[in-house]
Design brief:
The chain contains 11 helices and 10 strands. It is an alpha+beta fold. The relative contact order is 0.21.
């Protein structure tokens, strides 16, 4: 983050103000754009997670998809600068820096985990292991409603957060049906732009190993899975295969209809409404014991959950966010422009 010091906060804010009007107009008219879902998923990569094959890596201390994900991404994990400040004007902040080894939930240091719940089905009690991480939605509300415009979809369809420019507003988590992105305070460009108000932080989540996908390689969770429960491939092929698997076992698919469609297809012989009910019950029991007020980091699995962008609430939220988005997008654009000019000139001094 040290490179942010090459540009003064005064210059950043001045350039941001100059561009805010234009960016604000774009932001406030984007609701129409939001409603136009790009149905063309050519080139997108999808995945199947077969719950009949996942056993939670019962023979390993840590599920291999979890451990390999942590190893691959540890160089990107946040290193907060203390003392951590609250989220102005609130009196709280989210800090997981002392819990970096946790694997029982999503955190900024753990982007996938295995949810294990006991489910009653057909008169039997069954332990179901569910790998959880970002669903990578086709029409991702987190991307559309990020006030800072720092979430993108790659050519392979992965939903990716720009961790450098993210300011931790957490709107991505607010609009995600599964509350996937997790926030760490005390890190990010926010600390350099507005240090007196610092505390926003950065949001973190799975990016589907977008660097590997761009090279035509498989994500780490797939190559590490010892049971073959995780499979990646062209999204149309994965969707078709998921439904074929479900039909063969008399089971169910999750992720095809949810939130307008995702690139992740769970296959299970146990109904997902029962899995969701078990998750909700387990989370409530854990909350009663821990009294932890932070987001649980354990996503629900509600069947047919809708996309917030299709609701009145979503439209209102987009309208409220638009002015902020205009200023933030302009500020980030100003920073990138200034940084580019300084790199060209070789000037590393603050501009006044």
């Amino acid at each position: 983050m040290g490179e942010t010091n090459n540009i003064s906060r005064r210059t950043f804010l001045k350039r941001s103000a100059q561009a805010t009007v234009t960016a604000g107009v774009i932001a406030t008219t984007s609701n129409k754009v939001f409603a136009e879902v790009d149905a063309d998923v050519k080139g997108y990569i999808g995945s199947i997670i077969d719950l009949t094959k996942c056993d939670g890596c019962v023979n390993y201390d840590t599920p291999l998809c979890v451990s390999v994900c942590k190893t691959k991404n540890e160089h990107r994990f946040p290193q907060p600068e203390g003392p951590l400040k609250d989220y102005w004007p609130q009196k709280r902040h989210e800090d997981y820096s002392k819990e970096q080894e946790r694997i029982d939930r999503l955190t900024p240091y753990n982007w996938t985990f295995i949810e294990q719940v006991e489910v009653e089905h057909n008169g039997l009690s069954e332990l179901v292991s569910v790998p959880r991480r970002c669903m990578h939605c086709i029409d991702a509300p987190c991307q559309k409603l990020c006030p800072f415009g720092v979430i993108e979809k790659t050519e392979q369809g992965a939903v990716k957060i720009d961790e450098f420019f993210c300011m931790g507003g957490a709107k991505c988590r607010d609009v995600c049906p599964w509350d996937i992105p997790q926030r760490q305070a005390g890190v990010g460009v926010y600390m350099h732009i507005a240090p007196d108000l610092a505390g926003g932080g950065v949001m973190y989540k799975c990016d589907m190993c977008s660097d590997l996908l761009a090279k035509g390689e498989s994500p780490a969770c797939e190559t590490s899975c010892p049971t073959g429960a995780i499979e990646f491939g062209p999204v149309d092929e994965m969707r078709k295969l998921a439904h074929e698997k479900a039909t063969e076992m008399g089971g169910y698919v999750y992720g095809d209809d949810e939130n307008g469609g995702t690139l992740t297809f769970y296959v299970s012989k146990v109904p997902f409404d029962k899995i969701n009910g078990a998750i909700i019950k387990s989370k409530a029991e854990a909350q009663a014991i821990s009294q932890d007020k932070r987001p649980s980091g354990r996503p629900n699995m509600e069947p047919k959950v809708g996309n917030l962008l299709d609701t009145t609430k979503g439209l209102m939220l987009a309208t409220l966010i638009a002015p902020i988005a205009g200023a933030a997008t302009a500020g980030i654009a100003a920073y990138k422009t200034l940084k580019g000019k300084k790199n060209e000139s070789g000037d590393t001094h603050d501009e006044e």
